[in-house]
Design brief:
Helix content is 39%, strand content 29%. The chain contains four helices and eight strands.
């Protein structure tokens, strides 16, 4: 009889802890603007956000066991850091200029991309053992 009473006390407590943990993730996801959640769902399906912050219309999202991303006031990504993990090739194909993606593909480097950054002047692709720069104005690609 004592076991049943103990189980009736423990089981609701465990369920409450699990519910609180899942609400935290949902709350973070609910705070993220829709264009950003759409982007994340497209390129990192099934991943949950572990944190979200916004400062002066700059948005930072960190995925659980995944990359961190920065978006500008127009919800365009400016930085995606895989923290040593490779970025999805479809992300690179869709988001990098065609000439830059072709350069990476020709050198069989696209699967080595662990971070990408976009500024008004250039794209920067950090690979496992090198970095590739793409000048937006001239389309010049350098590696180093």
């Amino acid at each position: 009889m004592k076991r049943i009473a103990l189980l009736m006390t423990i089981i609701p407590s465990i369920l409450a802890i699990l519910a609180l943990g899942s609400c935290n993730s949902d709350t973070v996801w609910d705070d993220i603007p829709y264009p950003i959640t759409k982007f994340i769902s497209q390129y990192f399906p099934g991943q949950d956000a572990s944190s979200f912050t916004s400062n002066d219309e700059i948005y930072h999202v960190k995925l659980k066991n995944g990359p961190g991303m920065t978006f500008n006031s127009k919800f365009n990504w400016t930085d995606i850091n895989g923290y040593g993990e490779r970025l999805p090739q479809v992300l690179l194909f869709d988001q990098l200029p065609p000439a830059l993606y072709e350069y990476l593909q020709t050198g069989e480097l696209q699967s080595d991309a662990i971070s990408i950054e976009r500024t008004t002047k250039q794209y920067i692709v950090v690979l496992i053992d090198t970095t590739v720069y793409f000048d937006i104005q001239t389309s010049k690609i350098t590696q180093g």
